[in-house]
Amino acid sequence: MKTISKRILLGVSGGIAAYKSAQLARLLYRQGADVRVVMTISATRFVTPLTFQALTGHPVHTTLLDEHQENAMGHINLARWADLLLVAPATANVLAKFSQGLADDLLSTLYLAAECPVFVAPAMNQAMWAKPATRENLQRLKNHGVTVLGPEQGEQACGETGPGRMLEPETICRLLFPSANGAPLQGKKVLITAGPTREPLDPVRYISNRSSGKMGYALANVAAKFGAEVTLISGPVALPAPAGIKVLSVETAQQMYDAVLAQAHRHDIYIGAAAVADYSPAAVEKEKIKKHADELLLPLQKTRDILAAVAALPDKPYTVGFAAETEDLALHAQKKLQRKNLDMIAANWVGRESGGFDSDRNALSVFWQGGHCQLEMADKRVIAEQLLDLIAERINAKSTA
Ligand code: PMT
User: Fold this and answer.
1) Same fold, 6-176 and 189-285+295-400
2) Are 190 and 229 in contact, with CB atoms under 8 Å apart?
3) Parallel/antiparallel/unpaired status of strands 206-207 and 199-200
């Protein structure tokens, strides 16, 4: 059924992933989008323009100065026509040209002329992806408002393994039009924790952390949008309760433990996005602690690990933990994945200028057994969509294995 009336300009640049763009064009077309394709000359070495013409029903644009195409739809008209420019695959060369404002072929000229939102799905060798020049180009593009989709980590066409694989066409399509691709979590029950916990010291004081709940609430909202029945267990936050979602409010780590363990067995997926206190005061004073001594020592005791307890349940839900790190992010996250017997872990840097606690944006390094994916810095809602997409994908991969 056609549901989208979007005019999408699909730019295809010269990488082996160009073959996946044929499927992408088809998926976008099936969603009701009017798709016009622009290929770089090197892309035409991988896939013929005829393939895209047959799939979209429109001639493919390849050259900047083509008399016929200039008459029919010149580059400025083409840029004006588009509601959205999506470049997939986006090679390192194309990203460099976009970031520097070079316009020496049709695609780079269109990018400069386009006033619509621009999305790029990078695809390249892992060493090229890691090169400072590529990182800087990407950062410039993000600063200019370009949305970067992916890439994934995995085996590459060159035989190496690492980040640089273009996202699957289905994932790109879902990220662009989450509601159009059905509901990837339809029929699933998802339990999510969010926010901080507060560990009381006395009737007026507590130990807590900087979590705002934004990440967990974004996950809850998106999971509901993806068709899931969502229960959100929330520490004290200043966010409005999400519509249509059952919210259980708790304060302490022990209360969160009790609430989660009472619910977890009824759920298919558990996501621990809350920043649960690792330690709480060994005793809560009945009266306000008086200011007498120059130094006050507070004995603390370890809280119970909610995530590990869920992962140890006999019929455990698909268990996703978060890892908040200030150093050696990948190493610590992978250790937590193994030690707590998780299905997946989403690691974020905290204590930095952007992302992490109390920020509207975040970036995640996601690890599961045998795989890894980097979700680049974006609004927490976009990150939530990408993470839940990954979870849905992994659950499906598990059930069809
Ligand atoms: O709320 P925001 O301002 O939007 O910020 C988002 C966030 C930074 C809080 C979030 O993205 C995040 O990283 N949440 C996890 C924070 C954390 O406690 O990380 P950790 O590395 O200390 O803990 C690892 C995992 O164990 C987490 O899933 C945590 O929920 C869980 N845990 C920790 C202690 C405990 N007693 N029980 C637990 O279940």
Assistant:
1) yes
2) yes
3) antiparallel
Contact 197, 218 (CB under 8 A): no
173 annotated active-site: no
Give me the CATH topology for the region 189-285+295-400.
Rossmann fold (3.40.50)
Element (H or E) spanning 96, and its range? helix 92-100
Domain ranges across the chain: 6-176, 189-285+295-400
| 275 CA distance to ligand 1 middle (Å) | 4
- Ligand 1: distance of its center to the CA of 278 in Å? 10
Instruction: Tell me the per-residue pLDDT of 173-220, one tens digit each, with 9 for 90 and over.
Output: 878 876 555 688 989 999 999 999 999 999 999 999 999 999 999 999
- CB of 212 closer than 6 angstroms to any ligand 1 atom: yes
With H, G, I as helix, E, B as strand and everything else as coil, classify residue 45: helix
pLDDT (tens digit, 9 = 90+) per residue, 27-79? 898 888 999 999 999 999 999 999 999 999 999 999 887 666 555 557 788 89
Q: Give residue 348 CA to ligand 1 midpoint distance, Å.
A: 10
CA-nearest residue for atom 16, ligand 1, is: 275
Q: Which residue has the tokens 């060798």?
A: 125
Query: Would the pLDDT of 222 be above 70?
Result: yes
Instruction: Say if ligand 1 is within 6 A of residue 360 CB.
Output: no
CATH topology of domain 6-176: Rossmann fold (3.40.50)
For 367, the 3-state DSSP assignment is: strand
